[in-house]
Amino acid sequence: MFTTGSGVLHPNCAALGQGIVSADGRIDRSKLGPLVFADPKQLQALNGIVWPELIAEVNRRLDVLRSQADVPRVVVLEAAVLLRAGWETNCHEVWSMIVPPEEAVRRIIERNKLSEEEAQKRLASQVPNSEIVAKSHVIFSSQWDHEFTQKQAERAWKMLTKELDSCQSSL
């Protein structure tokens, strides 16, 4: 989304400045992050530019799937901003992963090489676990081991396909 010709690069430069563009013409996330996570208004401006492009792309891809002779029964939309953007209303089910806040901060520090304060700002810009739980049909925990998570995902998938089979048979 952050490349030349994507429809997102130019508005971002106008809103956030040319300093966020790297030598190869892409938006430099290491420069963008401190700008938007330090200032909620900047983050809101960025979201106002990026989210419409993201949902338009999702809709384009859904249109392609709907036009196929063999329309898939399930479409999985993986979107980190799904709940923050309010897109969950367009989904039959929402499956989410939660992580304890202290673990999230630790991971942000490790992954992005940020200070604890910067990591806290990033976490504060995200949907809190309580809201994730309230808006989701299926919840996974990042603290579970892989095998348990796999079993829970398979169980949830089986329940979803059973529900779809039930709906299909009632048509």
Automatic annotation (TrEMBL):
Highest taxon of the lineage: Eukaryota
A Pfam family that the UniProt record links to this protein: CoaE
GO-annotated biological processes: coenzyme A biosynthetic process; triglyceride homeostasis
Entry-linked PANTHER family: BIFUNCTIONAL COENZYME A SYNTHASE-RELATED (PTHR10695:SF46), DEPHOSPHO-COA KINASE-RELATED (PTHR10695)
Cited InterPro entries: Depp_CoAkinase, P-loop_NTPase
The protein, known as: GD13177
Lineage of the species this protein comes from: Eukaryota, Metazoa, Ecdysozoa, Arthropoda, Hexapoda
Keywords: ATP-binding, Nucleotide-binding
MF term (GO), any: dephospho-CoA kinase activity
PROSITE patterns for this protein: DPCK
Species of origin: Drosophila simulans
Annotated Gene3D superfamilies: P-loop containing nucleotide triphosphate hydrolases
SUPFAM superfamilies recorded: P-loop containing nucleoside triphosphate hydrolases (SSF52540)
